[in-house]
Amino acid sequence: MTRTPRSLAVSIVALSLSLAAPRPAAAQAPPAEARPFRLGVVTFLSGAAAGPFGVPARNAAEVLVEALNAGKGPAPYAARGLGGRPIELVFIDEAGGTTKQVSEFRDLVQRQGVDAVVGYISSGDCLAVAPVAEELKRLTIFFDCGTPRIFEDASYRYVFRTSGHSTMDNAAAALYVTELLPNARKIAGINQNYAWGQDSWSDFSAAMTALRPGVEVTTSQMPKLLAGQYGAEISAIMAGRPDVVHSSFWGGDLDAFVLQAVPRGALRRTTAVLTCGETATHKLAGQIPDGTIIGARGPHGEYAPDNALNRWFRASYQDRFVLTPNYPAYHMAQAILGLKAAYEKAQAGRAAAPSQDEVLASLTGLTFATPSGDIRMALGKGHQAVEGTVYGMAKTVGGKLTFVNVRRYPAERVNPPEGVKSADWIRTLTASPR
Amino acid sequence: MSDARRTALGLLAAFAVAVAAAPLLPRWALFLVAVALGRGLVALGLLLLIRTGLVSFGQGLFFAVGAYAAGTAGSRLHVGDAVALVLLGAVAAAAVAGVLGLLLARYRTIFFAMLSLAFSMIAYGLLVESPALGSTDGFNVHPATVAGVPFAGRAEAYAPYLLALAVAAAAALALDRFQRTHLGRLAPAVRENELRVEYMGASVRNVVHLNLVIAAALAGAGGAVTALAVGHIDPEMAYWTTSGEFVFVTIVAGTSSVAAPFAGAILLELLRSYAVQHAPNTWQLVMGATMLGIILALPGGLWSIFTRRRGARP
User: Using only C-alpha atoms, what is the Rg of chain A?
Assistant: First the structure.
């Protein structure tokens, strides 16, 4: 066994040179408006979250950008691309963990030279990428991740989130339960054992306790993510005979839970509250019992308002992909339209491209139109969006799932005021005046 | 020139070249190399274990312990310096291995592999159950200084790279030295024939225990370096797939030189980075196929390219 310093040194030098070679020549770059706006889009393209979240979001980005580049958007998004400048998409897979995502983010900015990044479904990825976006000084818009910690624990100049955070989902779910099920006293939960599930349950149980003091928690089941089999958990829930069972399940786990709970009669006397239920409704029509409370993390999907933007977005999406867009697709539309609105506001009618600083300034605190209604960047010093949200009850009519008792909650009713942490705010929630 | 001197000179030359190359390298490459060296440190520990005849599928545990120790010390105890945090990560991981080693050192082969995997999955489960540590979302780490230099501006770009290089070079040198000591030479002896080692008067269990602790310290340092470079920590670091990647890096790189794990880790990171960029939908397939190709073509690992050519020499 021998070791050779020369070959080692040679290999290191060779490696260094190969790394150094493809450096972008920033000096000869043409003026910004002469080249396309490169937009990095990061969503799950593989793994469990790809089907229900990542791929619909990617699809939405594709149809939207294609339509916008062709100048086919309705008012106020009729201008081509971003203020006349075509958008070029660079897709990256979000699978693989936070280390990989930080690495890919650096690549997007430093190697691919993107002008902005829209992305991230996982809250862990959002938390990890935010400080890097700040370090690299590149406009970054989170489109779907839920944790309120991002703008409550830190403040950022280059980072924005154009969808509401997850506190709203559970605050509104608790309000809806107290309003529509006046006799519900016993609650149970089944949530996936990771940050999303843990936060959702602690928000919902805290909100229920605030709204209806004396409410009894029969059980909180935390099966592991992607468990797929919930026999024991369903038994534990049934044993406590709760009035309401709360779940933030999504994707295959949600399908599996509904398909396993319904035949056992677990949802006969217990009403399920499914905060992400909307992603499953397309597939589970006919399985979901009438009266099940369904959320969509905002006025998305079936709950989206009937306006010109929404009709256009749905029609373009369905033309290409047959299915109707679900809430992650709506979240993606919010991010891209938010960027477009901010860019064109910063451009202020000039032909020249606005600087990144100008776009940052105009996106801060902006109100813009989306298929889900107007979005206001009201929290996190103007970097975090608030939106209203909607809950309704499933009712199957002639084999087709419809929604009854639909209630809309305005943004300020279900979001903490600026400067107040969600966890503190949700304990002070009070019932709506009758 | 003795083998030891040659290795030391080679490592120092590589270190000097890498430091000198820093201003030439694009920023993304600095980051990529820093993260790869962090992983290489774990693989270096695995190399020691493999020489002892053990394959651990649980190095992710020590990787995570190092990262979480550095992270919590940085955010809760306000230890500001990155160098101190790396040392702390190594010490914390070594301490954990010191305790777990009491049990682990009794097992060999698949039993050792499964037990190490079980410990890392217990740690993963505990971290997922800890909302105070951010559960699966983890938390951010941002050191205040690196060896006294404020961690901002230019230092922010270069410090993780230089820190990783320094730790990697020091660890590789130290491990190479250790392997040439009396105690170090017992490792391959344990792999070959435990009974003879016992007859010689050495304690096999102590040798295994010591090597476990050293491997854990290296993994802990690697975890801390990675945490500081990435700026974020999450329980995925303790998950079995992370441990599997380390075993993979070690096997692909080869175990004949202390430099191999680092070269292997950098190569795999580069490959992954290009695969993700050019094949966003099929990057896993590209990775798998390439790794399969390497194993089929070079069963002794990538480093065997260098040793095979000079294989005639003793």
Answer: 23
